[in-house]
Amino acid sequence: MQRFGKLVSLLILPLIVGIVYSSLKSYIYNETPIWTFEVSLFLYGSFFMLGSAYCHLEKKHVAVDVLSHYLPPKWKRILAIFSEAVVLFVALTIIWVSVPGAWRSTLMRERSTHQTPFNPEVWWYRWIIPISCALISWQAFKDMLALILGRPEKNGGEAS
Q1: How far is CA 107 from CA 25, 125, 134, in A?
Q2: Which of 32, 70, 76, 120 qualifies as a FRET site for 26, CA 20 to 30 Å off?
């Protein structure tokens, strides 16, 4: 999973290249390439969604520690289990809602709705959300199980 997360982080590089290319072409030739908007949308969306699973693995997400800072260890653990349960519930709900749409999109080989001359297929992009949520839910389940069983937490997602 860590190797996958590092590969996902590299999606930012073609995104930067595409945006810089589009900006330069627009500035120099007063003409924007037809593909840059949708490609940047696909790259950033994939980067964000798949990167969120990696972020959860590495424990690099934003957390509000105001309450847990003052709790005894037992209640910190209970709060952490509850937090992971909420993440798991939300991720599973998003999977439940997004898979039928992704499946329909795949069956009809859906194309972009932005109505540009580029008009790429987007059915594959609809699968990014359920795949990302599956990765997040798997990590949340593993973290919650480790908290319930009282296993010590390893830094940087080494347990995965």
Answers
A1: 36, 13, 21
A2: 120
SS3 121: strand
* Tokens matching residue 12: 């930012």
User: Which has the closest alpha carbon to 6: 53, 43, 45?
Assistant: 53
Separate counts of helices (H) and strands (E) for the chain:
5, 0
In the predicted model, what is the mean pLDDT of residues 84-112? 95
Which pLDDT band, with edges at 50, 70 and 90, does 158 fall under? Answer: very low
Q: Which residues contact 11 (CB under 8 A, 6 or more apart)?
A: 43, 46, 47, 50, 51
In tens, the pLDDT along 9-18 reads 888 999 999 9
103 has pLDDT over 90 = yes
